[in-house]
Protein 1
Amino acid sequence: MASRGDENAELEAASAGGTPASQVEPEVVNNSVYQPINGSQNHQKEKLQALGAVQILNGATILALGVFLGSLQSIFRDFRPFFLVFYTGYPLWGAVFFIVSGSLSVAAGRKPTKKLVEHNFGMNIASSTTALVGFVLVSINLAVNKYSLKECPSSQSLDLCICMGVLSNGIMSLMLILTLLELCISISVSAMWCAENVCNSREAISSPGNSV
C-alpha cells in the first residue's frame, strides 16, 4: 500500500508541471553551447565575403591601372623608365591572383566545403606571396622615377618629362597602397582558416570527454 501511495504521489507531481531533470538538461546545453557557435560562424562567413569582395576590387583596380600604364607607354615611348612595373607584368598576373583569391573567399563564405576551403587557403597564401613581390616591384619603380626626374632637366621636353613623372608616381603610389591592402587581407584570411582548423581539432579532441 505504501508503494502505491508513493507512485500516486509521483504521478501527481509530474502532472502538476514538474519535469524530469533529463528533459531539462538538453535544452540548457543547446541554449548555452550551440547557439553562440552558430552566431560566430555566421559572423565569420559575412566577414570572409566582405574581405573577398575587397580582394576582387583591389585586383580589378590594379588591372585597370595596368591598362592605363600600357596605353601611356605606347604613346610616350621616350619615357619607358616611368613604366617599369608594366614591363614586369605585375598589373596583369597580380590582378589575376587577387581576383581569383577574392572569388574563392566569397564562395567559401557562402558555402564552406572542405575542398573549397583548402583551395581558398592555398590561393590566399599565393596571393600573399604575389603581393609581397608586387610591393618590391612597385617600390623599385618609385625609386627609378625619382632618379629619372633628376635627369629631366637634360631632356628636350622638360615639361612633359615632369608631367609623366608626377603621373607615374601617383599611379605607383596608388598601386602600392592597394598591394599592401591585398597583402594584409590575404594574411588575415589565411590566419582565419588556420585558427578555424586549430579550433576544430581541439573540439574533435575534447568531444570524447564531453560525451562521457
Protein 2
Amino acid sequence: MSVNIYDEANKLESALRQSDEYQTVKSQLEAVNNNEESKKVFAEFREIQMTLQEKQMSGQEITEEDIAKANELAGKIEQDENISKLMQAEQRMGQVIEDLNRIILKPLQDLYGQEENQ
C-alpha cells in the first residue's frame, strides 16, 4: 500500500498549527505587535539579525558598531516582557521542530546505520 507522503506532511502542518507551542508563539507575537514599543524593538532586532546574517553569509566583516548595536538591542529585549515571552515560545516551538526533524530522518538514519553495521 502506497502512502502519499505529501498528504501526511499536510496533516503534520495542520497539527503544528493546532499545537500549544504554535498557539503560544502566535499569541505572544500578537502581544508584541499590539505594544508599540515592543513592536519597534522587535523590528529593530530582526533587522540587525538579518544584517548580521547577510554579512556573515557574504563573508563581510561584522564591525564593532554592529556588535554594539546587537548588544544594545539584546539589553532592550531582555527588559521587554512581551519580546522575552515571544522568544521563549519560539525556543519551545524550535525544540518541537527539531524533535520532528529527528523523527522524520530516522528511516534514513536506520537505513544507513544498517549498512555500517554489516
Protein 3
Amino acid sequence: MFVACILVSYPLQFYVPMERVEKWIKRKVVETKQEPLIYTVRFGGVIFTCLMAQLIPHLALFISLVGSVAGTSLTLVFPPLIELLCCYSRGELTKWVWIRNIFLISFAFVGFATGTYASLVQIIEAFGTSDI
C-alpha cells in the first residue's frame, strides 16, 4: 500500500515544480524544441530525485529534520504572521489577534526547537563514531 500511495502521489507532488519549469521553457526555448525538452526535464527530475533518495544514507533522518524546520514554519509561523500583516493593513489589529498569533508563534518555536534538537541528536547518533 505504501508503494501504491507513493506511485499515485509522486506525480501530484512533482506537478507544481514542473509547471514552473514548463512555463520557463515555453518562454525561452524555440517552439519546435519545447516538447522534447519538457519530457527530458521531467525524466531527469524523476531520476534525480530517485537517485538522491537512494544515495542519501538514513534518508528518514534528513526528512525528519526538514519536516521539523519547514513543517513548523509553513503550518505554525507563516499563517499567524500573514494574519498579523493582513489585520494591520486593514486596521483590524486587536489585542485578541495579537494574543492568539503570539501564542501560535510561541508554540511553533517550541515545536521547532524540540523537533530540530531531536532530529539532530538522531543524526549525530547515526553518523557518530564510537571511537571518539
Protein 4
Amino acid sequence: MSIEHRSGLLPYLFAIASEDTNKPAPLVLFLHGARDRGNDLNVLLKWGLPRFVNESSPLPYFFAAPQLPEGQTWVERESDVIAFLDELIASHPIDPSRIILSGFSLGTAGAWQITASHPSRFAGLVAVSGRVPKTLEPNQLAGLKEISIQIFQGGKDEKLPVEDTQQIVDTLRGLGGTVDFTVLPEGDHFIADEVYGDSKLQKWLISQSRRQASVLV
C-alpha cells in the first residue's frame, strides 16, 4: 500500500483507501508510543500498524499517523489532533461516522483522553499496551458507552498490570459499554505487530459505525 509522508500542524503518514473514491470510507487514526517521538516519520514505519499498512495491499480504509515532537504527549496535543482530524475529513472522502482512533502505549493514553472528550467523533477505540489517564472523570468514562472498544495487552507486560486494565473493562461494561479485552499470555509491552496484523481486528476496523457497534468475532 502506498503510504505518503506529509507535513502540517503535525507531520504525518497517510494512506488512501482502496475503495471507490466517490464512496466515503472509514478512517483509522493511529497515535504512536513514546519512543517514536521525534522528527523522522520513517521511525513509525518500523513496526505496528504503520508498518502493517505500508506492507499491505491497498486497504479499505484511510490511514493517518501523526508524529509528536520529542518530549510531548498526545494529551497535551488533544486540540491539535481534533483539528488534524477535521482537516482530513474536509479534504478526503472520509465517512465521519466510521472513524477509529487507536493508540499504542503513550498513544493509548492519548486515545482514551481524546475519545472520552469527543465521544461523538469516533465509532471505535483500539487501545494497545496502555493505560487510561487518571485525569478522566467518571462522566467522561460514561460517555464511552456508545463507542465499541478493543483493548489488547501482553500478559507479561511489566509496565501495565492486567488487573488494572481489567478494572477499567469492568467499569466500562458496568456503564453499558461494548468492550472486548484480549490478553496475549506470552506478550510483553511490545505486542503491536501481532495485534494489528490480526485479520479479525482488521475486519473489525471497517465494520464499526457510530450508528451500530459490533463485537470482534
